[in-house]
């Protein structure tokens, strides 16, 4: 875990996020907390990560998401050398989808 971001304020934010119960509640909360561009950037990076895990090429990803190659490269670095957060969430989403 990155101690640079572990602060009481970040703990409080994550506690708030964990209390959201539906996608609609997420929209309401995140539209208040983030600018539209911040939210779109976060969602774009998540989509890029998903496509990288699906073995899509940088060109395919750039064309479909509008992400720059620099953004795709940063996300790829996180996937390969980060904390495995993307993979943890992808695995849970896959498990949840199987349960439905």
Which sheet architecture does the biggest sheet show? none
Task: Specify the overall morphology.
Answer: globular
Number of domains: 2
Tally of helical runs: 6
The CATH topology of the largest domain comes to: Trp Operon Repressor, Chain A
Distance between the termini: 32 Å
> What structural category characterises the helix and strand content?
mainly alpha
CATH superfamily of the largest domain: TrpR-like
Tally of strands: 0
Q: Could you tell me the strand content as a percent range?
A: under 5%
Q: Helices and strands in order, then pairings?
A:
Layout: H1 8-18, H2 23-33, H3 36-53, H4 58-65, H5 69-81, H6 85-99
Helix pairs in contact: 3-4, 3-5
Protein name: TrpR YerC/YecD
GO molecular function: DNA-binding transcription factor activity; sequence-specific DNA binding
Organism: Acetivibrio ethanolgignens
Nutshell version of this structure?
The chain is built from six helices and no strands.
Report on the architecture of this protein.
The protein has 2 domains: 1-33, no CATH class; 37-99, TrpR-like (Trp Operon Repressor, Chain A, Orthogonal Bundle), CATH 1.10.1270.10. It contains 6 helices and no strands. It has helices at residues 8-18, 23-33, 36-53, 58-65, 69-81, 85-99. The radius of gyration is 15 Å and the shape is globular. One of its GO terms (molecular function) is DNA-binding transcription factor activity. It holds the Pfam family Trp_repressor.
